[in-house]
Design goal:
The structure holds 2 protein chains of 2 kinds.
Chain A (H helix, E strand, L loop, with lengths): L1 H26 L6 H24 L7 H19 L3 H22 L6 H4 L2 H13 L9 E6 L2 E9 L2 E5 L1 H26 L1 E4 L2 E4 L1 H20 L3 H19 L3 H20 L1 H11 L10 H13 L22 H34 L3 H25 L17 H20 L3
Antiparallel strand pairs in A: 1-2, 2-3, 4-5
Chain B lengths: L2 H25 L1 H4 L12 E6 L7 E3 L4 E4 L6 E2 L10 E6 L2 E6 L6 E3 L2 E3 L3 E3 L4 E4 L2 E5 L1
Parallel strand pairs in B: 3-4
Antiparallel strand pairs in B: 1-2, 1-11, 3-5, 5-6, 6-9, 7-8, 7-10, 10-11
Chain lengths: 429, 136
Amino acid sequence: MTRSAEAALLIATVVVAGMGVALVNFASGGGLDAQVALTLLVFSIAIGAIHMAVRRWAPHANPFIFPLAMFLTAIGFIEIYRLDSRLVSIQRWSLLVGAAASVALLYALRDDGVALLRRFRYLFLFAAVLLLLLPLLPSGWPLHGIEVNGSRLWVKLEIGNRYASFQPGEVAKVLLIVFLASYLAERHIAMAIVQRKLGRLSIPEPRQLGPVIIAAGASFVILVYQRDLGAALLLFTMFVGMTYLATSRMVYPLAGSVLGLAGGLAAYRFFDHVQVRFHSWLNPWDDFAGSGFQIIQGLFAIGSGSLTGAGLGSGRPDLIPAAETDFIFAAVAEELGFGGAVGIITAYALLAALGFGIALRAREVFLKILAAGLILVVTMQAILILAGILRLLPVTGITLPFMSYGGSSLVANILLLTLLARVSHEVRP
Amino acid sequence: MPALFLNLLKIIFLLLIYIFLWQVARSMRSHVSPNARRSNKTAREIAVVRSETLAGRRFSLEQPKVIGRSSDADIIIDDSYASEFHLRIGFQDGEVILNDLGSTNGTYLNGRRVSVPTAISSSDSIQIGKTIFEVR
């Protein structure tokens, strides 16, 4: 019964994607062309494959995870198509790759479930650190890092004159969640109980926390070195949040806030672009044509969207810098208005409620921490970038999960929700 | 394409989005609450369903009970897979809570391993090694 509900909702997301692309065409005088057909085809294949795999290998999985994820993917896809029809063919391939990876993951976990992943946790940690280091490979090698906008977080693989580039940090994020969940699942009792006294404060025993600190520290140093401060902030929140969830000790979020504040102040002092970001957050008009340009264009776009928006294909979201990646929410808010923007935020909120619901119902520590960690990261990532666009926080250059243009991000986030779906299959009442 | 028609399509598209979200929100309610499908009959006692030494015995849950192999446990079970102090059944917020005390071989509630404090209710089954209890 729930699986057919899932099928109906998934078909609705295919319809949303196809109709959106058609509306963009109509606005520029076009009609139902090959792009609409391709959109319907690719979404049907990707969604159909995931749905069949879930039916077969995780039949009790929560039926709303993939519909919500695919809904967000569809809305993002429409806006990417509207902004740049060349990028959209890459995004189509990314969606297909993501679906294939999701099917493969569900197949790999079919018998032993996510518990299988616990066996490989140190391998995952090692792989994650290695992936984070990849962009530092010198140029000239077949596999080398490239620098984009002052941050070195891309890797380019060149063989002859063919090449592919990707952001290894996105996959590393998922691997780190799995590592942390399995480590904490084994040690959480000792970490909560074995304490060391420091004056009147009880602090956690360093030996218990050692690997967590090393893992957090290593990924942190690498990300700061590559100047990917948004991802560093996200990982930091993830480490602190998951440790707190596993131990329910207030000392972790408190120490985390202090460390985070200190780290933020240090970053402000030593990195020019952090100072720039901070100033353009508080006083964007000081340098309208320069550092404040992106944020102001984003706000203008959202404002001009009014209640129901300019209509898909009728606004000018092309005026916002990075509209197809970080600022895609501003572009959607312009063309679908306040109504569309609230719809998107609602979808993220529903996804968060589902994820934490799964974590609450889990009766096994590993499943509980894993589910909570997975959904915590997606939610935090969405909050950080949405708040940046709405000028509630300084802009951190991270993608909006599922909606932003970018293959690595889409594939990694689909894998992340596949794990969550598998966990929900295992914790069914 | 006339502007009126485009506007109409835009509104239909937004409506489609909200119908979709409404359907999801409506049907996911039961999936979000932590204990949606539990029977609400309070646990009053546990009965031993399978055991070498205790079969057929019943233990009231008016006081908290610690189950284990140790002679200091409230309910002593002679099961080589059980730990000295295997699990505790206590009360919290008017619910009966099963708490595994870090046992070596684990506690299974309705066939699933539980390692976090979990509310139990009537007709649940608790398995420790080869011993099975039923909550009544």
